[in-house]
Amino acid sequence: MDRLRGWQQQAGRQRQQQDQEDLANGLIRGDHKQLISSTRLADGATVVAANKEARKPEKTIDGDDDSFVRNACAAQKWIILELSQLGRVDEVELVMTEMYSSRVRDFSVKGRQSHPRKDGPSSDYPRFFDSESWQLLGDFTAANRKGAQLFKMPLRRRIRR
Asked: Where is the segment annotated Disordered (predicted)?
């Protein structure tokens, strides 16, 4: 029983230390408020498009920790999600559960209200990412670790995609 108590105390200290490091690095973790997720497949969110090398991109929003997207290491990775409802994005949660895969490091979050297919053929999505129809919501750097990380949006705008 003492071993278990010691392990729990050690885990608690590690969590506190990680939270302090995350706050210092601009990352925010924890259940600080109840938010609605508009990106769950079960709630009506969809994957509009992804880079051509991505296999099973819908796994990014299926909620199953045992499923994942496969991508070539050299690929320029991107994904367009259609949220289940129009809303203001306050934060993005990035969850990396795979133990032996490469991790996301630097990433951008962009949004818009109109459907991206209005820009042109779907095969040309990356060409339009820098157009004025896509609003930059934030650029972020993720910590190189397994688990969930929350990123606050510096610019809050109402978006659908």
From this structure: 1-28
| Residue 34 confidence (pLDDT) above 70 | no
Best CA proximity match to 98, nearest among 147, 144, 50? 147
pLDDT of 69 reads 86
Question: What's the fold here for domain 31-159?
Answer: Jelly Rolls (2.60.120)
The residues that bridge with 93 in the sheet, in sequence order, are: 150
Q: What is the mean pLDDT of the chain?
A: 76
Q: 13 phi and psi, to 5 degrees?
A: -65, -40
List, as one string, the DSSP characters of 46-98.
EEEEE-TT-B-GGGGSS--TT---B--TTS---EEEE-SS-EE--EEEEEE--
pLDDT at residue 11 in the model? 65
Residue 128's CB is within 10 A of a number of other CB atoms, namely 15
